[in-house]
Every structure is written in structure tokens, then in C-alpha cells.
Design brief:
- 16% of the residues lie in helices and 34% in strands.
- It has ten helices and 28 strands.
């Protein structure tokens, strides 16, 4: 189970935000009572008694669409650095220090090969199309060698990852099936605080579990992911519920369960789901582009109330003209905000006519946009209202479509170094450049025979390591591969490979 400690307020500083991987728990009930009584001189007006909400229809509709996901990461051999044992050195070569073979008994590190254990975990997913597309959390599938999906009727399928996005903690996987029970997707923007919902998943080894509660809040930010606008619910969410469904009373999907707020690691009051408005955008981008097209205004800051409270603690009095909105603490260079003339100290109050009272509201709106989309920003500058239309940009500061680059763009062939090369050069890993053709490697001057050891400070032990480095860098703010390695002579070398398209 993954845990992210997130100190929300001093009163809650011992609590943790827990990714709900592995399993799930019981039910939650809510009752309402009224003890109000009128004075004896006043006639008592009886209020209609609220009837219990029947959630059986919603459960019946949604249960077949929620699946169990088994994650397997196979055992692997890894080379690690460990502290050198000085006594072992002495017994292996007691005269090493006298005959120039190194300073024995002086500590240091040495490389050893270790075998990692096989890892398994479980989570949940939601079928969103009859031909086998399933949405889950990124942390449910990240690093998996095998994924097995089990439907509510106990049919099993092998699944493959179509795409994943760490920033929103969403992933799209696929099984080869037909006429599968796809869930109906509702617009999460329409859900209201106080509305009844069901959380469906596979908690604590208890498959096909349903718990009930209400929408406790919307547009929550917790600092666990890069982009957040969570639906908060008091329906019980536990380990193993990650990727499961949050549904309304019609059995329609309104969110993907992602994490719980807990002091113990198990449910103690609040769970959080990623809204379908955000999910739909991520799924569409993965299918169409292979990666999420992330739009940015180009600011950092905080909720106005949080900013004002922090300034008061410092003894400063602040009057921004409002207590709602987003205080702009910094404007990024070459961003949509800079182009619009927004400055540090301004307060964003609306986007496309929608009020933004806190950062989660802003994140939720912008997460549904793509670079190149235009939005109308309403903001306060020196307490005066301004409205401007801006064109959103990507992390690289332009409006182009960002795609995951493949190793083909490098224009080179590689192989893992041989045992003889390891012994000759006294290295434990690396990728040798076997051939250089037209492409990014040639443009950067990387020669044939060069051995790549690190890319963007990550070790390059396998071809998969290089592929992952290329994909990650190609969609980042700085699409460059910083390569460190050695020539066949043993001389160190450094190159910068620009992945940006002209």
C-alpha cells in the first residue's frame, strides 16, 4: 500500500492520505433526527419525514461494471551499492594495503547483485466500454509485469496498459472482451454536496463490496498528485478500492475512487475520488495522442483565505478586495498568464464565468482543457475587476500537441554492454550505441561506440530504461536527454539530446 503523509492543518498533523491499493471495508450509515419542538402557544407544524434512500437499483446497475485487478511485479536481479565490509577485505587480501591494491579496511562501497522479491497487490477498475477499456488509478498498475482482471461473474482476462498519467493518478487498460457491462458515465460537475453515492470496489480481499455515503465536498486538493480536484465522500473507502467506482443513485459513474484520509491506514471518515469530468479528458487524450495534453495558465499560488491567514500570522494586514479566489504568488515566464498581463498579487475569481473559490475549482476546470484552448479569466488587480481571454499553453510554453516520443526519434541502435566490456571498463551496466543514423542522437554528436550510463540522472541498465527516459522527457517542460557515459577508451563524455520538434 502506498502512503503519502499530507499535513492538512496542525490539528490533523498525525493523519495520512493513503492510496487505497490492496483491499476495502464495511458500510457507512447516516441517520437524521429532529428534536425541535414549538412553544406551547404555537401550533406545531409537522415536516414531511424523509424516506430512506433506496440504493439497490444503483448497486444492481453498477456492480457488474466494477472489476478486480491483480498486480504482479516479477522478481528481478538488480545491481546495488552496499557498504564495504573492511574485515571481509582484510581476510580476502590481508596485504592489499601494502602492495598498492587499495586502502583495505577503510570502508567505502561495493556493487553487489541482489534479487528483488516478487510483488503482488490488488485494486479495482471500472469498465467504460463494451469492447474492454477499463479505467483505474495509475498507482494500481504502475510497474506491473502482469495484470489480471476478474469480472463480477469471475471471468478472468489478461490486461495491457494503454496509457497512464501520474499527474492525475489515472490509467487506461484494455482486455480482449466483447459485450462487456460498461457503466454509464455521468457529468461529475452536476453532483451536489449532500447527494447520496455508492463506493464500489474490492476492499481487504472482499470482492464486489458496496458502501454508501454522501458527497461531503467538491474540488478538494490534498497535495498527493500534481493535478487535483477531488470529490470527497464519507462512503467507506479502504485498501483495494483504488480505481473503483463512485456512483450516483442512478448507478452512473461520477468518480474513480483514489485514496482515503486516515490516521491508521484504514477508513476513518473520508475518501476521495477523481471526478469523471477529469477522467473523460484523460481517457480521450490517451486514446487520441498517447499521452495527456495538459493545459496550463502558468501561475502558482494558493486559496485567498489561506494566503490571508498566513499573512496575519506574520502580523501583516492584507486586503485583496475578496476572500474567495486564487491568490497569484508567481507568474511563469512565457505563459498564458504572463501574456494576459496577470501579475503577482492578483486574484483570479472566475474562469469562463465559473466562480473559482479555491485552487481545486481552478484545477478542475483547466484539467478539462487542452493547449490551444481559449478561456476567459476574470481577476482582480489592485482590487479592480478585469476580464481577459487567454490561450492556454503546454508545459513547453507552446500550443502544439505533445506526444510520447519513441526511441525511433533518436535514430540509433543500442544494446546492453557485454560481460567483457564490464570487466574491461570496470563498470556494471550501460547501453552501447551500435549505429547512428539520421535523428536526434546524430544531431547531438553522439558517436558510435559510446556507452550510455545515465540519462537525466537515471541509470540505463536496459533498453526499457532508455525508452522510459525518452517518453518521460518528451512530454516534460524541458524535453532534453542529458546523457552521461564513457567512450570505449574509458574517457567520460556528456551530451544533451534535444527532443523538441521543430
Amino acid at each position: 500500500m502506498k502512503k503519502i503523509v499530507n499535513f492538512l492543518t496542525p490539528a490533523l498533523s498525525v493523519a495520512a492520505i493513503v492510496f487505497s491499493v490492496a483491499a476495502f471495508s464495511t458500510t457507512c450509515a447516516a441517520t437524521h433526527a429532529s428534536n425541535n419542538s414549538a412553544p406551547e402557544t404555537t401550533a406545531v407544524t409537522s415536516m414531511p419525514v424523509a424516506q430512506p434512500v433506496d440504493l439497490t437499483y444503483a448497486a444492481d446497475k453498477a456492480l457488474p461494471s466494477v472489476v478486480h485487478i491483480k498486480y504482479v511485479q516479477n522478481s528481478k536481479i538488480q545491481t546495488v551499492e552496499v557498504q564495504r565490509d573492511p574485515f571481509e577485505d582484510f581476510f580476502n587480501d590481508p596485504f592489499g594495503g601494502f602492495f598498492g591494491r587499495g586502502q583495505r579496511g577503510q570502508g567505502g562501497t561495493q556493487k553487489r547483485q541482489v534479487q528483488t522479491p516478487k510483488r503482488t497487490a490488488t485494486g479495482s477498475g471500472v469498465i467504460i466500454s463494451a469492447d474492454g477499456y477499463i479505467v483505474t488509478n495509475n498507482h494500481v498498475v504502475d510497474g506491473a509485469d502482469e495484470l489480471t482482471v476478474t469480472l463480477s461473474d469471475n471471468k478472468e482476462y489478461s490486461a495491457r496498459i494503454i496509457g497512464a498519467d501520474k499527474t492525475t493518478d489515472l490509467a487506461l487498460i484494455k482486455i480482449d472482451g466483447k459485450q462487456l457491462p460498461a457503466i454509464k458515465i455521468a457529468n461529475s460537475d452536476d453532483v451536489k454536496v449532500g447527494e447520496w453515492v455508492l463506493a464500489i470496489g474490492n476492499p481487504l480481499g472482499l470482492n464486489n463490496t458496496v458502501t454508501a455515503g454522501i458527497i461531503s465536498a467538491k474540488a478538494r486538493t490534498l497535495g498527493a498528485n500534481g493535478v487535483e480536484s477531488f470529490i470527497q465522500t464519507d462512503a467507506a473507502i479502504n485498501s483495494g478500492n483504488s480505481g473503483g467506482a463512485l456512483v450516483n443513485t442512478n448507478g452512473e459513474l461520477v468518480g474513480i475512487n483514489a485514496m482515503l484520509y486516515s490516521q491508521t491506514g484504514s477508513y476513518s471518515g473520508y475518501g476521495f475520488a477523481i471526478p469523471t469530468a477529469m477522467m473523460n479528458k484523460v481517457v480521450d487524450d490517451i486514446k487520441q495522442y498517447g499521452t495527456v495534453q495538459r493545459a496550463m495558465i502558468g501561475i502558482s499560488g494558493s486559496d485567498v483565505k489561506n494566503y490571508v491567514d498566513m499573512e496575519k500570522e506574520k502580523g501583516n494586514e492584507v486586503d485583496l478586495g475578496t476572500m474567495e479566489g486564487i491568490y497569484v504568488g508567481e507568474v511563469m515566464e512565457n505563459s498564458a498568464a504572463e501574456e494576459a498581463g496577470i501579475e503577482k498579487g492578483d486574484v483570479i475569481t472566475e474562469v469562463d464565468g465559473q466562480k473559482v473559490q479555491k485552487f481545486g475549482d481552478l484545477s478542475g476546470i483547466i484539467a478539462q482543457k487542452r493547449p490551444g484552448d481559449k478561456v476567459t479569466l476574470t481577476y482582480l488587480h489592485n482590487k479592480k475587476k478585469n476580464t481577459k481571454e487567454v490561450t492556454l499553453r503546454n508545459e513547453q510554453g507552446n500550443t502544439k500537441v505533445v506526444k510520447n516520443a519513441d526511441m525511433d526519434v533518436l535514430g540509433a541502435d543500442f544494446r546492453e554492454i557485454t560481460k567483457a566490456q564490464k570487466e574491461q571498463l570496470e563498470i556494471s551496466y550501460g547501453l552501447e550505441v551500435m549505429k547512428v543514423g539520421a535523428g536526434k542522437m546524430k544531431d547531438a554528436g553522439v558517436p558510435k561506440g559510446f556507452i550510455i550510463q545515465r540519462v537525466n540522472d537515471e541509470p540505463m541498465k536496459t533498453m526499457e530504461d532508455l525508452q522510459n527516459a525518452v517518453k518521460e522527457a518528451s512530454t516534460s517542460k524541458e524535453p532534453v536527454l542529458y546523457i552521461k557515459g564513457i567512450y570505449p577508451t574509458g574517457k567520460s563524455g556528456y551530451f544533451a539530446v534535444d527532443l523538441q520538434n521543430e
